Amino acid sequence: MPPSEKRTSTRYQVEIDMLVICEGQETAARTLNLSLGGGLIHAPTPTPLRVGQQVQISFHVPELAAPLKASAYVRWVGDLDTALVGLQFVTGFRAKETWALGRFLDRQTPV
């Protein structure tokens, strides 16, 4: 079953800066699409991320002063461009964070 058929949240075309922390290494990344449950990012890490690996992510949405932070699993890595990474958020956001992310996503274009 393709990953898009397993999703429970709508994806939105969103390009925002994200910080990815993996094994103590911080990497600047950029989202390509985002949902309440995960996203597609471009993360040019020194060592390519691996499927199943857990990372920490952090990014800002306009509705909150503090960045959203979560753990995420790498669900897939691009074949031709290993910097393209599909993430699934592991830890849920708090209610206020979920509301803020949902409100932000509602103003974006669905993929």
Question: How would you describe what is shown here?
Answer:
The structure is a single chain. This protein has 2 helices and 8 strands; from the N terminus they run αβββββββαβ. By secondary structure, it is mainly beta. A 6-stranded antiparallel beta barrel has the order 2-3-4-7-6-5.
- What's the main sheet like? 6 strands, antiparallel, barrel
Total of helices: 2
Helix content range = 10-25%
Mean pLDDT: 92
List keywords for this structure.
2 helices, 111 residues, six-stranded antiparallel beta barrel, 8 strands
Short précis:
The chain is mainly β and 111 residues long.
List the helices and strands and how they pair.
Blueprint: H1 3-6, E1 12-13, E2 17-22, E3 25-34, E4 38-42, E5 54-59, E6 68-77, E7 84-89, H2 95-106, E8 109-110
Antiparallel strand pairs: 1-3, 1-8, 2-3, 2-5, 3-4, 4-7, 5-6, 6-7
